[in-house]
């Protein structure tokens, strides 16, 4: 008897280590970023910091496309901290210059990366936005809530924000997901439903866009509080691993999966701490480690230098 409902995910095995992956979105995007980076993929993530709503994600990509750096006039101050309405609070500081320098340093890296991006991964967190003077802010930076108009985007607004981006980068692939992190204060079901309907329409419209069901895997397939962190909102490390493995099955080529296993084995070997570092046994282990490091390094180089799928030898 099967006691859970498995989520069927179509396979689009296009990601190898030659891919240039750019990620935008919620804190779940950071989880995916960490795992991809540890497996030696070429990844750039959230140049504006964690971004929850699709309008701010679209604004971030448009700004990068224009290569328009930020200026002092765009840096605001509240309670002694300087910040940008387009950025997460991690960029804020007590110095206007320091804030601007941090923003433009990340911005410069991203503007160099975005023209060669082969895969965009967008993780939409919330359809609720906070507007001030007609502009959607990425983060409210603890300003009084009365300064903002809080509302939920419509399905059409989400679609209209992201569709020009997907069309503009028609030679790149877009993998769009809805973050499985729950928002209890904003009616999680209708909040996420707005995003899901918009993403469905985007994927029906654009051949270069696909949907990865991270939300459904956690809420429908795993469906148990043991797969949530202590706050009962975020996925647990085990859930993150399960979701990432399902992502790998759907989007990595078979040879990429094999190379990932070799990289994981290498990381385990590198993390080994000997009880007797001067022993002959450990010297033999170090020799094996050096050989295996070269094997993995050569396989990665072949994969990155070739548009074809390469395997480890």
In short:
The protein is an alpha/beta fold and 313 residues long. Helix content is 45%, strand content 14%. The strands form three sheets. The protein has a five-stranded parallel β-sheet with strand order 2-1-5-9-10, with helices on both faces. A three-stranded antiparallel β-sheet has the order 7-6-8, with no helix packed on it. A two-stranded antiparallel sheet has the order 3-4.
Topology of this protein?
Layout: E1 20-25, H1 27-38, E2 42-45, H2 54-66, E3 76-78, E4 81-83, H3 96-113, E5 119-124, E6 128-132, E7 135-137, E8 149-152, H4 155-168, E9 173-178, H5 188-205, E10 209-211, H6 214-222, H7 237-251, H8 254-270, H9 280-305
Please tag this protein with its features.
single chain; 313 residues; alpha/beta; Rossmann fold; 2 domains; five-stranded parallel beta sheet; three-stranded antiparallel beta sheet; 9 helices; 14% strand
Largest sheet, order of strands side by side?
Answer: 2-1-5-9-10
Question: Number of folding domains?
Answer: 2
**Radius of gyration, Cα only, in angstroms?**
21 Å
CATH domain topology of the largest domain: Rossmann fold
Task: Please identify, by name, the CATH architecture of the largest domain.
Answer: 3-Layer(aba) Sandwich
Large-scale geometry: globular
Descriptive notes:
The mean pLDDT is 94. 37% of the residues are buried. Helix 5 links the parallel strand 9 (173-178) and strand 10. The protein folds into two domains: 20-252, SGNH hydrolase (Rossmann fold); 254-313. The strands form three sheets. A five-stranded parallel β-sheet has the order 2-1-5-9-10, with helices on both faces. The chain has helices spanning 27-38, 54-66, 96-113, 155-168, 188-205, 214-222, 237-251, 254-270, 280-305, and strands spanning 20-25, 42-45, 76-78, 81-83, 119-124, 128-132, 135-137, 149-152, 173-178, 209-211. The longest helix has 26 residues, at 280-305. Helix 8 runs antiparallel to helix 9. It is α/β, with parallel strands linked by helices and 313 residues long. It has nine helices and ten strands.
């Amino acid at each position: 008897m099967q006691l859970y409902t498995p989520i069927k995910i179509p396979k689009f095995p296009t990601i190898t280590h030659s891919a240039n992956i750019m990620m935008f979105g919620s804190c779940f995007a950071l989880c995916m970023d960490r795992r991809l980076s540890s497996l030696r993929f070429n990844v750039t993530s959230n140049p504006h910091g964690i971004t929850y709503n699709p309008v701010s994600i679209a604004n971030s990509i448009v700004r990068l496309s224009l290569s328009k750096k930020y200026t002092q006039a765009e840096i605001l101050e509240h309670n002694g901290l300087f910040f940008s309405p387009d950025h997460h609070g991690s960029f804020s500081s007590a110095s206007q210059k320091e804030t601007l320098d941090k923003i433009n340093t990340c911005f410069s890296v991203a503007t160099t990366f975005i023209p060669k991006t082969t895969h965009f991964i967008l993780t939409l967190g919330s359809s609720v936005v906070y507007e001030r003077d007609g502009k959607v802010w990425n983060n409210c930076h603890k300003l009084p809530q009365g300064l903002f108009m809080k509302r939920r985007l419509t399905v059409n607004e989400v679609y209209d924000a992201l569709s020009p981006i997907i069309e503009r980068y028609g030679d790149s692939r877009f993998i769009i997901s809805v973050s499985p992190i729950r928002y209890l204060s904003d009616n999680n079901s209708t909040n996420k439903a707005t995003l899901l309907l918009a993403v469905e329409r985007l994927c029906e419209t654009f051949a270069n866009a696909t949907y990865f069901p991270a939300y459904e895997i956690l809420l429908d397939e795993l469906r148990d509080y043991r797969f949530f962190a202590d706050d009962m909102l975020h996925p647990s490390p085990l859930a993150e691993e399960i979701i990432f493995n399902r992502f790998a099955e759907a989007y990595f080529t078979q040879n990429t999966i094999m190379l990932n296993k070799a990289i994981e084995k290498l990381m385990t070997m590198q993390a080994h701490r000997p009880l007797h570092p001067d022993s002959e046994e450990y010297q033999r282990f170090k020799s094996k480690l050096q050989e295996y490091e070269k094997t993995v390094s050569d396989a990665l180089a072949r994969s990155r230098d070739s548009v074809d799928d390469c395997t480890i030898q």
